[in-house]
Amino acid sequence: MATINMIMQGKGGVGKSFIASLLTQYLQESGKEISCVDTDPVNATFAGYNSFDVTTLDIMKDNDIDPRRFDKLVELMLALPDEADMVIDNGAATFVPLASYLDGNQVFQMLAESEIQINLHTVITGGQALPDTLSGLGSLFKTFNVPIYVWINHYFGPISAKDKGFEEFKVYKDNSHRIAALIRIPQKKKETFGKDLENLLTAKMSFEEAQDSTLPIMTRQRLKMIWKEIQQELSNSGL
To answer: Are 33 and 85 in contact (CB under 8 A)?
Structure first.
């Protein structure tokens, strides 16, 4: 059975492309055949990873999003070979149009009939983006009935309700049975691990490429440690 991993969140700049890159690297190392698609018409960050061979979907017409161009995305999904995986990074600007298209055209139902598994991934971040990312998650629960993997990203600030964790938010309590897994991005010192990770993302370099590079030995060591923790989180998620 082919599997689609689609990253959706209505708030920009919260780590969607980072998550797409992590999923791609993890699945590649698992020996999977991977297809990658970037639907972001504004910041095609995922497509910037040369080692992933990402297909960029052109969804613009006369400076506006043309929903009919999502037809091509469906064609790509239906063309996946058995046992292959696809990772789709969707931009904030296309969150509402794509969600509306998928729902209105019953795309997930059609894919299920073709025995293609759909996994949605979204991210919750702390700081000022917390309310918006919680709202984005709530919207996914209301619109779709497929497994949802929730990524917890504390980089921008703590994620807490009543001084407790994400599990205390109402959106979690009301929908915990719908969440396939919580995947926690490791919290590390920003001055060392955080800076190394920032530079890795800016360079659009995979963890494997970092280990094969001329980066300083301790930078490579810290990135190796981060990747090992992320691998464990993904392994625990059951993906």
So the answer is: yes
Question: Residue 90: which of 18, 49, 38, 137 has the closest Cα?
Answer: 38
> In the beta sheet, which residues pair with residue 116?
2
Task: Tell which residue, 135, 192, 102, 100, has the closest CA to residue 11.
Answer: 135
CA nearest to 23, candidates 54, 44, 1: 54
In angstroms, the CA 67 to CA 72 distance is 10
Q: What is the mean pLDDT of residues 161-180?
A: 90
Cα–Cα distance measured from residue 35 to residue 15, given in angstroms and rounded to the nearest whole number: 20
Domain at 2-185: CATH code? 3.40.50.300
The residue type of 121 is H
Residues 128-162: tens digit of each pLDDT? 999 999 999 999 999 999 999 999 998 888 888 77
Would you kindly state where each structural domain of the chain is located, as residue ranges? 2-185, 188-239
